[in-house]
Specification:
The chain has 118 residues and is mostly helical. The chain contains six helices and no strands. Helix 1 crosses helix 2. This is Transposable element Tc1 transposase.
């Protein structure tokens, strides 16, 4: 479109992008002959794939362990939020231990009798 002589504003409207994005893309095309994104953009990973597998294994061995404990056991120096995100990506949900034991049928009957008597 730019080669055909379109204005940057019209190209941006057609491709549903900002004028700045179209201008930058056009400048890169005229300068380098490519429109590809630069490699290496974004934050570098702190953990390797092997570390990620060890995190998953640790979470599967003990589902009630915390993310901080997993990081310490695995030996990876990443924040607990990152470990939590890795577990969420693997569809591993957090499991908390029960705060109280569930009532047995006998306990339920005794409670019901106590309530009915009062």
């Amino acid at each position: 479109m730019k080669i055909a002589g379109w204005l940057t504003r019209l190209v941006a409207g057609q491709v549903d992008r900002s004028e700045c994005a179209v201008r930058n893309c056009w400048e890169q095309w005229t300068r380098e002959g490519t429109h590809a994104r630069k490699t290496g953009s974004g934050v570098t990973r702190k953990s390797t794939r092997r570390d990620d597998r060890r995190i998953m294994r640790q979470a599967l061995v003990d589902p009630t362990v915390t993310c901080s404990t997993i990081g310490a056991d695995v030996g990876v120096t990443i924040v607990p939020q990152t470990i939590s995100r890795h577990l969420a990506e693997a569809n591993l949900k957090s499991k908390r231990p029960f705060r109280a034991l569930s009532l047995t049928t006998e306990h339920r009957q005794l409670r019901l009798q106590w309530c009915q008597a009062r």
